[in-house]
Amino acid sequence: MAPTESDCLFCGIIAGRIPADVVGESEQTLAFRDLNPQAPTHVLIVPRQHYATAAQAGAADAGLLDEIARVAGEVATAEGIADTGYRLVFNTGPAAGQTVLHVHGHLLGGRGLEWPPG
């Protein structure tokens, strides 16, 4: 498993050093509201272990991305958006808009989401 990064924003949230509005969790993940929401429901689901990208997490820990998707489904149900639909997005790298180098899934819903997204 990858170590926690001392200067990582999400590692600070996971460690409890930085406050967050936590809405769900599992043994491997933590889910909290995005501070700059792009939809009425915008929750980030992050692994407790530090991996910079989804590709790194998938290569290092089989099943971790599945766990993020499972927790996203639970949060979507709790938020009342599971039946109407939601989007789960992983931005990987700066060209895709990843600004925090700790893999995280964006759970977005509560309004119509256009396609293509970008």
UniProtKB/TrEMBL annotation:
Domain HIT: 9-118
Superkingdom assignment: Bacteria
Active site location: H104
GO MF entries: catalytic activity
Motif (Histidine triad motif): 102-106
InterPro entries found in the cross-reference section: Histidine_triad_HIT (IPR001310), HIT-like (IPR011146), HIT-like_sf (IPR036265)
Listed name of the protein: Histidine triad nucleotide-binding protein
